[in-house]
Write a structure and sequence with these properties.
Helices cover about 25% and strands about 20% of the residues. The protein is an alpha/beta fold and about 500 residues long. It has a domain of about 170 residues. The relative contact order is 0.11.
């Protein structure tokens, strides 16, 4: 065996992990899981080592490793000046005053994570380089001197830190954030648990600013104001939108409203503040059915406000303002969807977003009537979604040009190689999204905001979002979901894996 290969893959620090006891705590819940071994001092990482993890005490174990000749060859090739075996896994902007030739209009200062071997099994992190953000190409200074020097001096004698591979394979900070500004609502929808909340109030601007201090908005692509309350009822909503923009948000700032209180004056104030998307919750274009599902609300009033918003967008040429209908299809999905698609096409707004009621077992008792139908699921049956797309194109004669669908990690975090992305079947709340309640406490997802009493997973009052994402939220639901062990509150959700319940 090559000495370099043996030193890397069978180092004492890795082999010593075998000594960890298999009975790690009083109530072990061990599952097989891919594990990374980090060496912070050298900036080296081994990815996806075979291991197992205890979800109770967070103990991590990996067995003996076998040598990988492909990895050793990739390193040897790099040291000899052949970069063909390298892969760029991540790129992050780097602020610098250095006047080096490689930094041109095309190549900008960056830190690169460079992988070696099959699927980037060994990673050299934070290598200084030039990076082309359009072509995803790198230019290493001095013929890659820093990279080759770090590889040539690779000695992993110190104890490495074992972490779940999910930490590196997903963004290090949530990209999408849902924030509940208020638990007050002017409606009493039949399938909503707002009426069961003990306290219904707005979060104060001072309290919200404290929560905002805990969030790195430069790492966030989407900020959504939603929740069990009606966001537009919060009198400071325009100020809140401005505050988010001032704190570095570069992406979408969106609000979901029941539409009953979005008057022309409120439309003007939140549009001037910089809102980028407004979604109206309209389940049916039938007045009786709408009133039944939306607690007696008047469809006519909601449509007047929607049409006023469309007129304001047209009058002020707000081409980047997205307007859409979000519908919970309770019954007759094709019939309801047809009417909503026609209405959206007539108004010249975006394609509606369709979903069904929460499928989770823990919420079924909340439905006093047989609302939930089996005709399509929260993920959407392929047949229904195909029909929606086809029908939308027919109503608009030609396919409408829409904004480019940029993958979430590419904006805030820089570049992440697609080989890092988890399976499309993995719930997005495990990958890049969080829900923040009006108290500053974290809830697993927007579905579970209706669970009363609420089950909180950590708080922004005491920790920043970066810490919560990689600690409380990681171990309470992100990691279990990725390993096929759904928390109890997730059971029945179509995005939850089918497996033993946590």
């Amino acid at each position: 065996m090559d000495p370099v290969e043996q030193n890397i893959l069978r180092s004492p620090s890795l082999e010593s992990q075998q000594k960890i006891r298999t009975t790690c705590c009083d109530h072990p819940r061990r599952v097989n899981a891919p594990v990374d071994c980090e060496y912070a001092e050298t900036g080296i990482r081994f990815r996806h080592l075979p291991g197992n993890i205890c979800l109770s005490c967070r103990d991590i174990y990996i067995p003996n490793l076998t040598a990988n000749t492909g990895l050793s060859q990739s390193i040897a090739d790099c040291l000899s000046g052949d970069p063909s075996g390298l892969v760029i896994l991540k790129s992050r902007p780097r602020n610098t005053q250095e006047k080096e030739e490689i930094y041109t209009d095309d190549f900008h200062p960056a830190y690169l994570d460079i992988g070696f071997g099959e699927n980037g099994g060994l990673v050299v992190e934070n290598v200084k380089a030039g990076w082309n953000w359009n072509l995803y190409e790198a230019l290493l200074p001095d013929q890659g001197f820093e990279l080759r020097e770090r590889l040539a001096n690779l000695e992993l004698k110190a104890e490495g830190r074992l972490v779940p591979s999910l930490v590196y394979d997903t963004p290090l900070h949530p990209r999408s954030i849902q924030i509940e500004l208020t638990t007050r609502c002017n409606l009493s929808c039949a399938y909503c648990t707002n009426k069961d909340l003990e306290v219904q109030s707005d979060i104060s601007l001072d309290s919200l600013n404290h929560l905002f201090d805990q969030i790195d908005f430069s790492q966030v692509d989407n900020v959504d104001f939603t929740g069990l309350g009606e966001p537009v009822l919060h009198k400071k909503l325009p100020d809140i939108i401005r505050e988010v923009k001032l704190r570095g948000s570069h992406g979408n700032i969106r609000v979901v409203t029941n539409g009953t209180v979005l008057t022309p004056s409120r439309i003007k104030s939140i549009c001037e503040a910089g809102i980028t998307s407004i979604a109206f919750s309209i389940d049916s274009m039938n007045e009786e059915r709408f009133a039944k599902s939306r607690g007696g609300a008047k469809l006519k009033k909601v449509m007047e406000n929607l049409e006023a918003l469309v007129a304001y967008r047209n009058e002020h040429d707000l081409r980047d303002l997205e307007i859409k209908i979000k519908a919970v299809l309770i019954d007759n999905p094709y019939q309801e969807a047809e009417a909503l698609l026609q209405t959206s096409a007539r108004l010249g707004i975006e394609k509606p977003h369709f979903s069904c009621l929460d499928n989770r077992a823990v919420v079924q008792d909340n439905y006093k009537e047989p609302w939930l139908k089996d005709e399509w699921s929260a993920q959407g049956s392929p047949e229904f979604l195909f029909w929606v797309e086809k029908r939308w194109h027919e109503l608009n004669d030609v396919v409408k040009k829409s904004k480019p669908n940029i993958s979430v990690p590419n904006l805030a975090a820089g570049f992440m190689n697609p080989m890092l992305y988890p399976s499309d079947k993995l719930c997005r709340w495990a990958v890049d999204a969080v829900f923040i309640s009006s108290s500053g406490d974290m809830i697993s997802c927007c579905e579970q905001m209706i669970d009363i009493p609420r089950q909180y997973r950590g708080s922004l009052v005491t920790k920043n979002l970066y810490q919560l994402w990689q600690d409380d939220l990681l171990w309470s639901y992100r990691l279990p979901l990725s390993l096929g062990v759904p928390p109890k509150a997730c059971v029945g959700c179509n995005w939850a894996p089918v497996g033993p319940v946590l």
